[in-house]
Amino acid sequence: QVQLVESGGGLVQPGGSLRLSCVVSGFTVSTYGMHWVRQAPGKGLEWVAHLSSSGGFTSYSSPVKGRFTISKDNSKNTLYLQMNTLNAEDTAVYYCANQGWEWGQGTQVTVSP
Hints:
Blueprint: E1 3-7, E2 10-12, E3 18-25, E4 34-39, E5 45-51, E6 58-60, E7 68-73, E8 78-83, E9 92-98, E10 107-111
Parallel strand pairs: 2-10
Antiparallel strand pairs: 1-3, 3-8, 4-5, 4-9, 5-6, 7-8, 9-10
């Protein structure tokens, strides 16, 4: 049974940082490409970042490039999203997904003074 469980969200001030985690089971991150996707209040889904199965290739959406870093720990079967220099436009529910678009339940990130 495939499961993806996100954590690490919360309330942070503008300019702050958070690290999201996505612990997976039922498959291994070492053999799957992985995504982070977000949904801001009242808006549609927005793709954020992708990490190749090898871990050697990353890609980011324009709004987060240079501020967010996607990574994984194969030994922990866990995907991460390091988010720096956060701003109000980053407020959203953040989801991890595997290359087959199986999703977690999401974790809320709120950026506010």
